[in-house]
Amino acid sequence: MKLARRVRDLSGEGAFDLLARVQKLEAQGRDIVSFAIGEPDFDTEKHVKEAAVAAIRGGLTHYTPTAGTARFREAVVRFLKRERGLDIDASRVVVTPGVKPVLFCAILSCVDQGDEVIVPSPGFPAYESLVRYAGGIPVALPLREERDFVVDPDELESLVTERTSMIIVNSPHNPTGSVLPRETLERLAAVAEKNDLWVVSDEVYSSMVYEGGFVSALSIPALAERAIIVDGFSKTFAMTGWRLGYGVMPESLVASFSMLLTNSVSCTAAFTQEAGIAALEGSQEGVAAMTASYRRRRDLLVSGLNSLPGVSCRMPRGAFYAFANVTGACAALGLPSARELQGRLLEEAGVAVLARNCFGRPCPGEAGQYVRFCYATSEGRIGEGLERLRTFFASAS
Ligand code: PLP
Hints:
Bound molecules: pyridoxal-5'-phosphate
Structural class: alpha/beta
Oligomer: single chain
């Protein structure tokens, strides 16, 4: 049977493909140290689970308004005021089942056939895929190692044409762990204002910044009417399986955004919204403890990686990813790219990582080879993984 053309424009995620492969190997009895899928290894906190259970018992098992309950939207407003000093009206907040639907609705609402959208490269693969699905053209903005993978505002400006309609940014960044400083966001805002562009700011790792603090695009006045903030509970509150996210957007976008939700999911589950309120309003000590633990793991992993032959790794400032340069290791092993290294590490060393190609096509002139490590795993497993890598590189080269 014939499939619609638009689904052929979608692409998957290397992380989920690799997860399936890792689980297959584990089912065969192999022990794999996985640095692959980006999800917290912590359990969702007890007070959050209890809020959901109480909500189910209390009968919150029906539809809610598409954009979310007033209670949820107001809790987001209070959270943004308390944590970031922002004054946002609740009418600008829309709840979604997971963070990805915010990206989906934002891109489908704002990108027309033939529009160009500037996306970070390397970057979260859904950006490119969704832009293509919407009929747009993704334009890669290279994030360069020598700039600690931080956006170069001059290079960004040079990519803008009369067909550009949107810029997508992600800070802290998946897969490099880079964090955008305020000056860079201000320069980006000026480019967006001058060229009348939407800015999608994916802030899903906002709680995980280890140096210098987090700057939300919403705190840049020039972005107030053009930024769409993408955030949620998956990473900050270790709630990947709950599917709960939210967007904060200009009033003018809320109706079309909500219309897409009405036509696809109707609304987000009532009891997960209650769990979200408990996460936002409850003690933030658990979040701080997780962040402190990620920082220790980052330090352990990055210093270990830098001691391996043919591997070097910049210190990431946020999220829970390290993006290691493995150009030397690939050359020593006679491998054409990090993709082959990913395969060898999995099969021979029992270590799962994701190669550069899982985060968009390499940019023209990009010579280095890279793999991403997610360090949301215990210090013991990180140590074990590093040991396996050391043994592999020693025996293979
Ligand atoms: N944005 C970025 C940058 C991510 O890394 C992820 C998940 O890995 C998401 C969005 C999607 O989050 P969710 O699983 O809540 O849909």
